[in-house]
Amino acid sequence: MANEIIEVKLRRQKQYKTATVGTLHICTKNLVWSCKTLELPWKNNIPNESCIPSGKYRCERVKSEKFGETFVIADVPGRSGILFHCGNTVPKDTRGCILLGVGLDCTDRKPVLLASRAAMNTFRDMLSDFDSFDLIIEGAG
Q1: Taking a C-beta distance cutoff of 8 angstroms, is the pair 41, 17 a contact?
Q2: CA–CA distance from 21 to each of 1, 18, 31, 66 (Å)?
Q3: pTM, to two decimals
Q4: Hey, which end of the chain has fewer CB within 10 Å, N or C?
């Protein structure tokens, strides 16, 4: 494979009362790309209320009825169905999944992702040659 993945890492950077914000970095042999992320706040991995724990996870390509082609984060302790997908706010747009966006507006301490569809399209393009990858999550959780 000409464009092998070197690293996929999510660095959680800030915890708000209602949200966790970070940056997802994808480094391949030929390209480097990053985008903003938005997740639920850390609440001890409680399903539908918390982001998932920090750690290393295997991500596998899936076709979601609601979100289309994406990746599921496998083997999350006590959780299932954790996806990467479009969305702008928490908790409205996620119950534990990772939302992607080109930018982030943190007005009034209520983070809102910007251009989520554009980020998700680039994410899909970056990983179009791959059926799976390892994800490292650093930071809160």
Answers
A1: yes
A2: 33, 10, 23, 23
A3: 0.93
A4: N
